[in-house]
Amino acid sequence: MPDSSQSQSHQRFDGSVVRSLAPCKGWSLWSFDDQDSDGFWTKRYFARSAERDELLAVDRFEFDPTQERFDWLVRSGFPAPRLSPVTGAQCPWNNVTIDALIIDAEIEASRAAA
User: Fold this and answer.
1) Distance CA 29, CA 15 (A)
2) How many CB atoms are located within 10 Å of the residue 51 CB?
3) Beta strands in 59-112 (DSSP E)
4) N or C, which terminus of the chain has less Cβ within 10 Å?
């Protein structure tokens, strides 16, 4: 399993492209199956460009790829895990958090346009 705390700038991963999503700014979404230390198999996701792969800091149980979520991750520069407002611990990005930020950006854009 790749270590998401290390720079992934020159590493390439084995996987398969997520065909249901269109590329964004030259990046395609890919996935691979990964077994954790407890024996669970889950999908891990990475973005691939012509130059490099970027392992995505997304929750292995609470991330379902959609075009909007992938576009947000690309446009946000593949953000590192966020800090929990409750514990201060690093947390991967999940559906709820990404969707809320997408909605916030849409609200801000509509206010700016008004």
Assistant:
1) 10
2) 8
3) 82-83, 90-91
4) C
Q: What is the crossing angle of helices 67-75 and 95-113, to 10°? A: 70
Is the CB of residue 43 less than 8 Å from the CB of residue 58?
A: no
**How confident is the model over 62-106, as pLDDT tens digits?**
999 999 999 999 999 999 999 988 999 999 999 999 999 999 999
Answer yes or no: are the C-beta atoms of 8 and 52 closer than 8 Å.
yes
Q: Determine contact, residues 27/47, Cβ cutoff 8 Å.
A: yes
**Distance, CA of 79 to CA of 71 (rounded, Å):** 12
Nearest in space to 11 (alpha carbons), one of 45, 37, 48: 48
Residue 89 is inside which H or E element, if any? none
CA distance to 20, 45, 93, per residue, from 51 (Å): 22, 17, 24
